[in-house]
Amino acid sequence: MRKLVIIALLLAPFFANAQDFDFGKLTHEERLFDRNKIDSNANAVFLKEFGTARLSYDSETGHMKLIYQYHARIKLFNKEGFDAANVVVPLYKNGNGNNDQEFLSELKASTFNFQNGKFEESEMSSKAVFNEEKSKYLSLSKFTLPNIKENSIIEYQYTIESPYLFNFKTWHFQSDLPKLTSTYVAYIPANYKYNVSLRGFYKLTDNKAELSSGCLRVAGKDMDCSKITYNMKDVPAFLEEDYMTAPSNYKSAIYFELEEVHYLTGSSQKYTKSWKDIDYELVSRKEFGGQMKRKDVFKTIVPSIIGTSTDELQNAKAIFEYIKKQIKWNNYYGKYSETSVKEVIDRRSGNVADINFALISALSAANLDVEAVMLSTRENGTVNKLYPIISDFNYVVVKVNIGETSYLLDATEPLIPFGLLPLRCINDQGRVINLKKPSYWMDMKASKRSSSTHSLIGKMTEDGKVLGTITSISSGFNAFNSRREIKKYSSVDEYVEKLDERLSNIKIKNYKITNIDSVENSLIEEYQVEFNVGNAGETDNHFNPFFINPIRKNPFKLNERNYPVDLGAASDERISINIALPDNFKLKEQPKDLSIGLPNQGGRYLLQTNLLDKNLTINQQLLFSKAIYTSEEYHYLKEFYNQIIQTQKSDVLLSKSN
Length: 658
Known about the structure:
Layout (H helix, E strand, L loop, with lengths): L1 E3 L23 H4 L12 E15 L4 E14 L9 E7 L10 E13 L2 E6 L5 E7 L2 E7 L8 E10 L8 E2 L6 E11 L2 E8 L6 E13 L2 E15 L17 E10 L5 E3 L4 H10 L4 H4 L9 H5 L5 H15 L1 E2 L11 H7 L1 E2 L1 H14 L3 E7 L19 E8 L2 E5 L19 E5 L6 E4 L6 E11 L4 E11 L1 H11 L4 H11 L4 E8 L8 E10 L7 E4 L21 E2 L4 E10 L4 E5 L4 E5 L4 E10 L2 E10 L3 E2 L4 H14 L4 E5 L2
Parallel strand pairs: 2-11, 17-18, 24-30
Antiparallel strand pairs: 1-12, 2-3, 3-9, 4-8, 5-6, 5-9, 7-8, 10-15, 11-14, 12-15, 13-14, 15-16, 19-20, 19-22, 20-21, 22-23, 24-25, 25-27, 26-27, 28-36, 29-35, 30-34, 31-36, 32-33, 33-34
């Protein structure tokens, strides 16, 4: 993240690209634009993108509002690029049912096709626009441009009126399409002070400021603004891949956070405060600290949960299990309680904060040392640690300290074990809030390595049929994900039935799954299976032994990746196959043994194949010893997977003698 210094009174020549473009005034250069100039693989490209944001005083309400205008022109090269004609505009609201929300207006959109020597315009009808209520905090305004074809140029513009001034308006230079030029102009009144930062890999092409006189009128008085222009040219598309946190962490974009406002009355208000100020506000706030203090709600409940036990760890586990079972998560995130701990217990439902504040209160009632941890989930992005920005946080979990060990807990997931947070919470750092001590940062890491062992012990008959048992034992995130997958179905029988359908060459004859609900223990799955090796009656029988969790596709495909690979947790997977062969079979061909590793002991893959006393054994280990790999390590990971995939294409050849 790079901080940009705004020099409000610096007068600089305004450059040509720092102005809006006329709607529908297309050029032949745009019609004939060759995508090879920016990205030969692009299916569509932003020819031009321009936006402005300014504050406006609403004399009727006496409040300031933000007016944001957006204008884009995009060329569609082929059918794969047609998705760019489906536009979604997010509009935020506070969820309280009043008019404190954003509004879309002045929408205009057209498609231009070059026919008979000229551009033909197809205007979008207002009937093509519809709204989707995504949640009580977000609605989506959606529209699709008409009459799109290969080589069409689409253009649209709109205005958003917003009551939310704290973040001004973020501008994203990068998107899933490349851009020839992207320009943003921010008009910031002289009495408003914003912290401005540029995130992402790419630098600005131009960044200039000048004085804009009389840009805002408040109570009959004209005010000056800093007119700051940000421009980026030839911006590559941002391509998402597996194993990453929020794209907003890495896309090139301008972010604003309101630091201070000086009012005409002479007073001022600070919005960016110290953590000392934030701590006091959070602890004093009813929806945060007020709920952490409600141990009285559990005064009579806790003794029935823990009995006469004096073991703090066992007591904490018992209370954790109680809260998980008693309160159902309503699937809403939040760092503030929407109700109260007492109502949550009565209703048996609540958002993330409701549930975890109830857990804090219950642990406090058991006289345990407990704190709250505010964090930003993986899809929400990382928080700004230069100065406190409460709006960066969207989640709260629990930290309980027992002896020399601290445990992080989230009671929203019934299938999560004690001390393991859901993957969504494993993201950079969280802020620990204590009712009596100053807050501090802590790393949000997975407390346990994800591990799985899979073993097949079987026996092959004379006709090439293998009868055996596959046993899988998993823990950590692997066990959590498997349990969650099982719970998707109405019964375990249905889960196994669907699993059997997916295994094209293997037939499940019987099964036993242990510890589905005993989440503190490893999940154990046992399947009696039957499959054929080659075809009956043939002398030579080929079969691929990599049928347990095979790696068929490389998750890493980019030529360059400028953001880290975040697996969430270190992991270890071991696969063992042991098949007893008939006396008249021998191993004729086998996969080559392989031992490869990542630099700096970052991981390894081992493969060994053997035939000893008519027992065919194939052993594999795939180890990732780190949760996060840097962008510099990306090519090693990519090649690591390529070698594994090539190896797992190898067959075993068993030859039958007469």
